[in-house]
Specification:
The structure is a single chain. By secondary structure, this protein is an alpha+beta fold. It is built from 2 helices and 8 strands; from the N terminus they run ααββββββββ. A 5-stranded antiparallel beta sheet has the order 1-2-3-8-7, with no helix packed on it.
Length: about 130
C-alpha cells in the first residue's frame, strides 16, 4: 500500500483526538489500547509504533548511500549493516512483521526502516523482545 494509505488511519485518529477528544477517548477505551506514537530512543537507533507499521531510524553519515547499506527483514528479525558507518544492528523483534510489505530508505543522514506489522491491531511495548 502507498505510504499515504498506511498513514491515513493514524492521521485520522490524531485529527479525531484534536477535534473530538471525548469521542476519541471513548473509542480508545472500547478498543482497549492506545498506540504510543512517541519516538523511543534506544541509543544507536530510535523507533516508533505507527499503528500498522513500526518505524526504525538509524543515524548515519550524510554521505552514506543506499548501496552502502545492507538491510535484512525477516518475520521476527531486523538486521542492519552499514560498513562505512560501523553500524551493525541485529534485533529480535517484539512481534512478527511482513517482510515483503516492509521498506527502507536512506535520506538526510538517516536510514529509516518501515516494518509492516503482521498483527496491525497490536501495539508494541518495545521494538525488541
Amino acid at each position: 500500500a502507498a505510504v499515504w494509505a498506511r498513514r491515513a488511519g493514524k492521521d485520522n485518529l490524531e485529527f479525531q483526538k484534536s477535534t473530538q477528544p471525548e469521542a476519541h477517548e471513548s473509542a480508545q477505551a472500547v478498543l482497549g489500547k492506545e498506540v504510543d506514537h512517541q519516538e523511543h530512543d534506544e541509543g544507536s537507533y530510535t523507533w516508533r509504533d505507527e499503528g500498522d507499521d513500526v518505524e526504525v531510524s538509524v543515524s548515519i553519515p550524510a554521505d552514506v548511500k543506499g548501496k552502502d547499506c545492507k538491510v535484512t527483514i525477516k518475520p521476527g528479525k531486523l538486521v542492519v549493516a552499514v560498513e562505512k558507518a560501523s553500524v551493525q544492528l541485529e534485533l529480535q523483534l517484539w512481534d512478527k512483521v511482513v517482510p515483503e510489505d516492509s521498506t527502507w530508505t536512506v535520506s538526510g543522514g538517516k536510514l529509516v526502516v518501515t516494518l509492516n506489522k503482521a498483527n496491525a491491531d497490536e501495539a508494541w511495548a518495545s521494538l525488541t523482545n
